[in-house]
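hey can u check if this looks right to u? its 548 residues, i copy pasted from the old doc so theres a chance i mangled smth
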Amino acid sequence: MCVEKGMCPVWQHPTRGCRQARTEGHHMTADQSSGDETDSTDDELIPDGGEASMVEYGIEDKPPLIQSILLGTQHWLTMIGSTIAIPLVLSGALGFNGAQTAQLVGTFFVVSGVATLAQTTIGNKYPIVQGGTFSMLGPALAIIAVLGGADGGASSTVMMRELQGAIIVAGAVEVLIGYLGIFGKLKRYIGPAVIAVVIALIGLALIDVPQITSASQNWYLVALSLGLIVLFSQYIDSYSRVFKLFPVLLGLGAAYLVAAALSVAGIADIVSLGGVADAPPIRAITPFQWGMPLFSGSFAAGMIAGMLASAIESFGDYHSVARMAGEGAPNKKRINHGLGMEGLGNVFAGIMGTGNGSTSYTENVGAIGITGVASRYVVQIGALVMILVGYVGYFGAFVTTIPNAIVGGLFLAMFAQIVGVGLSQLQHVDLNQNRNVFVVGFGLFAGMSIPIYASNVESFEAGFAAVPVLGQVLGIPEVATTIGIILGTEIAIGGIAAFILDNTIPGTKEERGLQAWEDITEDEDAFEPYHERLMPGGEPANEDIADD
């Protein structure tokens, strides 16, 4: 279906690994792919008037080193907001002092860098950054609250050790889910309508982040950073390759200089560099730096629920990054190995003591859409930058001086891009069929509304205990906590609702977009797991794992 030269007939991007297309080792650039369409073996499938590609650098491309460093730094900058926000929230709940908070932020950077290198090298090999997850922040805060929080009860380090144990258990479960091929087996039942809901909710779920919605936010600075990013990426990107490749770096840099100038001039107190000089040159970030992990069954159950929500989000991210990179939809094997590696990243995060997990970064996916830079090499360079920043105290301290308002402008651009990418999946679905319109509409509405209801529930344990017949089971603290976390996660609720409806309401494969989905899915041969490359003769040691 997908031709050697030209575009994937459904996604309208030059693609590698599409059904009946070239495999992993045969790379073709965007310039090559826009060649003579007469070479096609299936000319009728080439869309009329299709654009060549929005991709500047494909997955296999390696830009010049200096350019790659700048592009990698740009990828890293897109995830700064969450990478700083999550540890700041955790440190406040734990009652950490300034030095402990700085240590936690540095740990997040190191874990993100190492996990990203692992995923892009021996995981699913997608150009996708790994980092902290809001899906596991909720369970972490719930655990801290049970232990007494910063106002009393357990000490801050004991609470962190409990978090470490829960995260390690959740990570181990995700390793099993990934490498046993559970999510891969579900792929045949997950069509474009479901993926559209999941990806769109990834962006919509972040609509109320404080960097955007805070009443005290400096909206002049938000508008400046957003306006510059939109200007460079959408309006004048054709005037210079610099604008096309570096809209985020240019937008954030210019906005930061304005904020710094206003601060120096005494007009506004926005940027303070005093803490940079006081930062230690090197941070000693080591395994078990807070102490050995503690393991509690109820805490682990809650964290597993957060991990499952994170896995669903990653499932959507894989499809989204493939879409933006002009690639065929991920096959079962790539999905399985991606989630398995994310599980290992969670275990590593627990060992290092982030108090949070590791997952695919939605912000990074949005950056690929804005810049067109989908190079795995660039993301790996960005990972090295993360590790460097984590260990060098001056860099980490400087990062914390970036105003939330500037980060808010970046978030507005990226999250909007993600929502749009999610909705673009509907091109495969027959929207003239009422069942498809209902599946998408209900999935989105349920995903946004039910978590709001869940946030207003004072005690799931008490409510579930009162349920007739099943109350004795549902009222168990571990069960109630797990269900409460799932109900409070937009992606989980919307994805589950869309999944059930799409697989129970009558509809043909063509109407549901499953046939088109199958046509654009990469061959199973397009992804070769790392362990298979190490086996003599290229044969995997475990056929069950390899075939999933």
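DSSP finds 28 helices and two strands in the chain.
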